[in-house]
Amino acid sequence: VTGPCYFYRVMPVDKSGDTTTYSNSVFAGDETCEIAATATPDGGITKTFTASTNSLFSATLSVPTGAVSETTTLLYTLHAPGSGQTPPDGLANTEMLINVTAYRGGNPLPDFVFNTPVAIQLDYASYAVAGTIEETMAAYRWNREDQQWSTDGLPVVDHDQVNNRLVFTTTKLGDFALFAQPSGEPISQTQVIQDSSFEADPSLWQQKSNNLPFVICDNKCNYSGASEAHIGEHWVAFRGGMQAEDAYVRQTLALPFGRVLTATLSFWFKIPVPSKSGVGTLSVSLDGTEIFTVEATQANATTYSKFTKLSFDLSDQVRNGRIQLLSFDASIQAQDESVFYIDDATLTLEGYLIPEKRAYLAQLSK
What we know:
Blueprint: E1 5-8, E2 26-29, E3 36-39, E4 45-50, E5 57-63, E6 72-78, E7 92-104, E8 107-108, E9 113-124, E10 138-143, E11 148-150, E12 156-160, E13 165-172, E14 174-180, E15 186-191, E16 206-208, E17 216-217, E18 235-239, E19 245-254, E20 258-273, E21 280-286, E22 289-295, H1 298-303, E23 308-313, E24 323-332, E25 339-353, H2 357-364
Antiparallel strand pairs: 1-2, 3-6, 4-5, 5-9, 6-7, 7-8, 7-14, 9-13, 10-11, 10-14, 12-13, 15-25, 16-19, 17-18, 18-25, 19-24, 20-23, 20-25, 21-22, 21-24
């Protein structure tokens, strides 16, 4: 745990140097601890937690006197939604998701219930609700048993849209999030890569090779004169040779101005020739974050001996209204014969457009 707070255990050592049983875990900290607070039966507490990794919001936890029967440590965490924690149908994620867990003796209490309701206040930045109808915002808790978000037991007691603040009460802890109805025109199966099949205009792609004038090929790339594209007549070919090869094909993507809920990158991939005397590697990245990498081993060449469709969920990487660089890169050692093929690359988005940029800028000015 960062800051002046941590859990520790004591391990006694006898005279011979042998260790004995560890003690229970104990929390140590004070009021300056950034992500934890201690509640006692005879005293209430109010603690504001801020997220160093996300400036969009802060959370304030208010525990009244008598809410706990024993001294209890409350640990706050900001995190991304877990696997399967998709927004409820028809609602947009405001990117505000926290976890509050109760501990005693250093051990988590997943089924902990307060004696009386506690208040959680979320202060959020205007950007977090851009593309949503703010007055529809509500607090949700992840129900582990039903594996879904629910508003049960989370009454909203105050929603100050001028100061971007929502307060709700709860007797249970766990994962909490704010969701709202989206505003604007739906983005449904919108494909944002231009010339995704490499057929229309090679100038829409940046391409570079140490050894060849281009990597977007047609039938002239082959001695046989036959096209090896997945569909159509053009495809990307990264080829090894006498000289080391560092090559790429890239495109700068202008994403829709709105709220992206899901983003899926798909492309067709093939290794027609594996490495013989070295190692050839292909990698795919978005804004420098690696999505996929593969070496041209014999085993991988067998797996990808025919064009195979690969798909990746980029919902956490694609950002609303941003410019992002999609890159396919190949690195092949000298005198290696590795070959990689790529064709029909798509980045498909679903979400909601913000009707007017001015409305978005007005939100930011709050």
